[in-house]
């Protein structure tokens, strides 16, 4: 069972965090679809670890982005959050936009990240293999772009996670995508390639072989730019790879994280409830 | 009431199967496949002739606007068109509607060019500052939609301050930082040319216009009946903020086709109208609405969803003249029909500035002149008196009475 709490940050800001499970602590940074109470990947993490899943600033209220102009500000935001939660030697996992943020964090604060897992990360660009225009795809083909099956997984559409009001549904999507746009529009390249060599954590890069948003050749790009990285390209999966091939992804995670999670000591007493 | 002749400058050679063959008229339509610059030479010159003719016919303003990467409107720089018009006209006000301020770094460039136009034209400029469409700003110019409106408002604030101050100052904005703001030239009009804000249905824009005393122009392509919720929202905002309900603080755009009767109107205007709605307006909806372009408050108000709905409908449906007439999108028919409908519009919208599309789609030159002439002779005189009891504070006040004419070409050559 996951619980939601509000964590106080310096300057009067707050961050909403979902947490649950027991065991070594891992931090999950969600992708553009946000953080649902019934998120199947977060739930699976909670079966093995003590999972901390912050909601990205902006997703619940765009005003939270007023003072977060760049990926550098985002890294500062997460550093303040991890301080407030008393986290050290962090095991940091992220998907899509969240994976880009995780990579930025690990490059900004290399000494603070023990292990890094990047699933379908944004953040790099090659002219010969352009990342799809995430925002310019025709509405009706969006699910075809991100899901291998072309349709949203039923697990991802728990009515309990969705606002009932159609306008509020539209607002939720607008806030999520506006937040992502702020950091990847119009080309998802904010100079991460220059910073990736700073990452010292052992890193696992996971891509879906059929990712139509970020071609899986980017697994090579990330793996080559990060000192201690290995990559895995998973068949029969697209941009939503952790949701599409969960068992295979978790087999990889189990092997990669091993007992490393245990090394990431989360001093829960430091957390602000 | 004042009447302005608005040119969108569409490309008139989009092929018949355009809608089937192309995703969108805007953003990613390959110029190599469609645009012929030799034909473009004639198109620009014809269109400028038409705008100049509108002055002679008796229109109050002639209007140009800014769009990028499309076959819908060929004016990436309306200022270039206004500069050409400034030399060949002397009475009509130049309504540049306008420059998408957030696309210029620094925005002071807009203050400079607008001032050049005001000086060149002898104080005849109306300076329009649109946010710009999602297509133009976010997709064509790569502007970040999450910060676009904030940057836009800051840019307008900078321009207005520069025009009012007319002495060097430092500007420490979030998006623009300038140690020396001191644009030359400065406009003839003081403190500055009237500022018009062409808007969609963004509710923050209403408030912003009222607080700054800017004119709000709703450029709807769906006729005045469907434009009512937006204009009503604007007037409610004016009341709420204690502003004067003066019709001249608002503008509205309307397609018109004047003819002898309904049958002739259909014969003359059906083809260009269907061309406009089926080809020029064939826009992929996701280009309309990049995330962040519509504010959360505007989404909650549900105003913009109408435009998206309409454009989604248009993508599949073939728009016919009958629908355009029945739905009040286009006003066409005898001069009396047009007068009656525009009177009805004035009653319902309470708008003093009417922006007219007498040219649309692939309309032929002689049809444009016919439409323009009949509107000026047979419609304008019957509506001119409307709202005469109000002072128009959103219009160039005292342009030079003796606007210098270009020297004759033969003289200049000697």
Gyration radius of chain B, rounded: 20 Å
Unreliable parts of chain B: none
Q: Gyration radius of chain A, to the nearest Å? A: 17 Å
* Beta-strand percentage range of chain A: 15-25%
Helix % of chain A is 25-40%
The number of distinct β-strands of chain A equals 8
Largest sheet of chain A: 8 strands, mixed
Order of helices and strands of chain A: EEEHEHEHEHHHEHEHHH
Shape, per Cα inertia axes of chain A: globular
Q: Greatest chain-chain interface?
A: A-B, 22 and 22 residues
Give the strand order, joined by hyphens, for the main sheet of chain A.
Answer: 1-2-4-3-5-6-7-8
Which structural class do you get from the secondary structure elements of chain A?
Answer: alpha/beta
> What is the CA-CA span between the terminal residues of chain A?
17 Å
Q: Which quaternary structure do these chains form?
A: heterodimer
What would you say this structure looks like, in words?
The complex is a heterodimer of chains A (273) and B (414). Chain A has 10 helices and 8 strands. Chain A starts with a strand and ends in a 10-residue tail after the last helix. Chain A has helices spanning 40-48, 71-85, 97-108, 142-146, 166-184, 192-195, 217-225, 241-244, 246-257, 260-263; strands spanning 3-8, 14-20, 25-29, 50-54, 90-95, 113-119, 203-208, 229-234. Chain B is α/β, with parallel strands linked by helices. In chain B, 46% of the residues lie in helices and 13% in strands. Chain B has 17 helices and 11 strands. The longest helix of chain B is centred in the N-terminal third of the chain and has 21 residues, at 37-57. The radius of gyration of chain B is 20 Å and the shape is globular. The A-B interface holds A 62, 65, 69, 135-139, 167, 170-171, 174-175, 177-182, 185-187 and B 23, 27, 138-139, 142, 144-147, 284-287, 290-292, 294, 296, 299-300, 302, 305.
